[in-house]
Write a structure and sequence with these properties.
Blueprint lengths: L1 E7 L2 H15 L4 E7 L5 H9 L6 E2 L9 H19 L3 E5 L3 H12 L4 E4 L14 H11 L2 E4 L2 H9 L7 E3 L3 H10 L14 E6 L8 H16 L3 E6 L4 H11 L5 E4 L4 H10 L2 E4 L2 H9 L4 E3 L7 H6 L2 E3 L4 H13 L1 H7 L11 H14 L6
Uridine-diphosphate-N-acetylglucosamine binds next to helix 1, helix 2 and helix 3.
């Protein structure tokens, strides 16, 4: 048996690791331990419950409005202690959060092979997204296995001198999770006005805190005032820097509904029902194209250029006038809208987790008769 330690810290890691954890648990050669850093508390618990995953270890790291140096330091100390106790053969983590960067670092210090899920994403700008571009670089350079979603991400790693033999193009596990959840029609607690077009909004990026995010909010308000036939649903991220501004600038409007973050299943359902999505989220940039929903990305750069190249995602930044102009075009021009509302899935086909398991089985069980 090989002992595989799967790390989850935040909501998107829970969503994207769930298909892999499930697939690994079906393998006779793998003993799977799930460690939740709980960098996110409530958001992570929601998704683990949906996917029926009970962590074996929970570090309960989240503190209100946590600062990055303290978060990093506490994660390193707590992960090191657990890696020492558990002595896994392999550590797996997904993405670019502080949880992932510290898991890769501690695995390196303890000489435990690290597998990076959703490897190779880059903007080539350390400030955008902050601190995630740094987190990816660190995790990427410490990994034994790089499970990249696309050829583009493979090329990014090759340019950084990573050996091609260590890179595996698997697709993104988010599409595995999405297709499983989207197959069902989920009840929505939020009453939607069927006579209005639904604009779904999410935002949480640290580099947008302050004036850029205020400009985004002003643009949303302008759009709602310009178009009486739209309603906005915005599940507000619990980060206090986002929450306060969202409520200050978007509260008290009859066609803007600010709500708590939605559980993943209803969030997929509301994406299905949306006319248009405005977001700075990484995961939503991957999911919405697969659901045929146009996305305007509230950022100037993206590490997910594939859907932009497909013409179904557009970078609009955080300039108020630009957001209003781009959204107006999609709200007024049927042809422009249709060109972006095509169901394409450049990030995966729903089988990424199986491909990752195949690679790990080959690497870890060679010559051992598969056990
Ligand atoms: C984190 C990740 C980001 C990822 C995002 C996904 C880092 C540095 N940031 O950003 O890469 O895109 O998660 O959502 O790794 N909070 C709660 N409850 C929760 C979660 C968060 O109250 O369940 C609040 C807390 O006050 C917490 C704050 O949000 O201190 C910030 O959480 P943190 O994980 O540091 O950053 P995010 O902005 O959530
Ligand atoms: N999501 C969710 N509920 C919400 C908002 C988002 O379940 O209210 C899901 C979304 O479908 C996607 C993931 O959370 O799979 C994205 O998380 P987030 O935007 O917080 O982080 P990022 O992907 O930018 O790292």
């Amino acid at each position: 048996m090989k002992h595989i330690l799967c790390i989850v810290g935040t909501r998107p890691e829970g969503i994207k690791m769930a298909p892999l954890i499930k697939a690994l648990k079906r393998e006779p050669w793998a003993r799977v331990t799930v460690l939740a850093t709980a960098q996110h508390r409530d958001l992570l618990d929601q998704v683990l419950a949906l996917f029926d995953i009970v962590p074996d270890v929970d570090l309960d790291i989240m503190r209100p409005n946590q600062a990055l140096p303290e978060l990093t330091a506490r994660l390193v100390m707590a992960l090191d202690e657990k890696f020492g106790e558990l002595a896994p053969d392999v550590v797996l983590a997904q993405g670019d959060t502080t949880t992932v960067m510290t898991a890769a670092l501690v695995a390196f210090y303890r000489r435990i092979p690290f597998g990076h899920v959703e490897a190779g994403l880059r903007t080539h700008d350390l400030d955008n997204p902050f601190p995630e571009e740094m987190n990816r670089l660190v995790a990427g350079h410490l990994a034994r296995w790089h499970f990249v979603p696309t050829q583009r991400s493979r090329q990014n790693l090759l340019r950084e001198g990573i050996s091609d033999a260590a890179i595996h193009v698997t697709g993104n596990t988010v599409i595995d999770a999405l297709l499983e959840v989207a197959a069902t029609e989920w009840p929505l607690d939020i009453p939607l006005d069927a006579s209005k077009r639904l604009v779904l909004v999410t935002a949480h990026r640290r580099e947008n805190f302050g004036e850029p995010f205020r400009a985004v909010c002003r643009a949303i308000r302008q759009l709602v005032d310009l178009y009486p036939d739209i309603e906005v649903v915005y599940p507000v991220h619990p980060n206090p820097n986002v929450r306060a501004t969202a409520h200050e600038l978007l509260g008290n409007h009859s066609r803007i509904r600010l709500c708590q973050p939605l559980d993943y299943a209803p969030f997929v359902e509301i994406q299905k029902r949306a006319y248009l999505i405005l977001t700075d989220s990484g995961g939503v940039q991957e999911e919405a194209p697969a659901l045929g929903k146009p996305v305007l990305v509230l950022r100037t750069e993206t590490e997910r250029p594939e859907a932009v190249d497909e013409g179904v995602v557009r970078l609009v930044g955080t300039d108020e006038a630009c957001i209003v102009a781009e959204a107006s075009q999609l709200l007024e021009n049927e042809a422009a809208y249709r060109a972006m509302a095509r169901g394409v899935s450049p990030y995966g086909d729903g089988h990424a987790a199986c491909r990752i398991v195949d690679v790990l089985r080959d690497a870890l069980c060679a010559g051992a008769g598969g056990a």
